[in-house]
Design a protein that fits this description.
Keywords: Signal. The protein is mainly β. Helices cover 11% and strands 38% of the residues. The protein has an eight-stranded antiparallel sheet with strand order 1-2-3-6-5-4-7-8, with no helix packed on it.
């Protein structure tokens, strides 16, 4: 009886082993500009947040309907709010960017919100970029 219980217990343990676990061998296609991707509210697409290598904390934003299709037309203006500081974003290439000039945001976490108009609708996107 003890042998039966031991063999049964071993069989149950082995039955749960095996199979393939999660793999990180292929993490998928990286974002087009090498930034971080944030989902837009309401499953309306994605925004890619690209932190430039400047000590001023410059940031660019690119908007996509899915992982490869950019919004067309792309937003031509927006507002970035971090704490009590607000900055109007300017068009730059296919996206929006913080304006050149004085220090905008310190390097580090970008916690705040981004407000733009996409497909004729005002959208506020919470940010939490580290």
């Amino acid at each position: 009886m003890i042998r039966f219980a031991w063999v049964s217990g071993l069989a149950v343990l082995l039955a749960g082993c095996g199979g393939s676990g999660l793999s990180t061998d292929n993490p998928g296609t990286p974002p087009p500009h090498g930034g971080e991707v944030i989902n837009l509210p309401g499953a309306k697409g994605h925004v890619e947040v690209v932190r430039k290598s400047s000590a001023r904390g410059d940031v660019s934003f690119y908007f996509f309907k899915d992982s490869t299709t950019p919004y067309s037309p792309a937003p031509t203006s927006g507002t970035l709010t971090v704490g009590k500081k607000q900055v109007s974003l300017k068009p730059e290439g296919e996206g929006l960017a913080t304006p050149p000039g004085a220090d905008v945001f310190p390097r580090g976490a970008l916690d705040g919100s981004l407000t733009v108009e996409l497909a004729g609708e005002k959208v506020t996107i919470p940010l939490g970029v580290r």
